[in-house]
Amino acid sequence: ADLDQVGDTLLHGIVLQLINPKAYTVNTLLFGGYGFMGGGLDEILVKFVIINAVWIPVHLIWLGAGVKVRALDLGQINYAMAAALMVVVGIAARLLLGGAALESGT
Asked: Cα separation of 15 and 32, whole Å?
């Protein structure tokens, strides 16, 4: 693998993690939503261990899956998936526009 490409991919992964709204939601809920040890430093440390016990294996699984998918030759499949995605977007747009027309009485 080209090291420049790996560095770019790593940078993209780090930036994506920083702007991941699901992570902010989960962390806010876990650390701010539920208290079970009185809210002290002990509770924060326990929650930190819990979240990392889930987070680290999940990310390692995704990393392994990404390595396996990248090793496959997906050229034609990528085009087929892109075409299918465009069809779905078209159907959704048609339903949204058709629904708006029905509601307005036209």
From this structure: 24
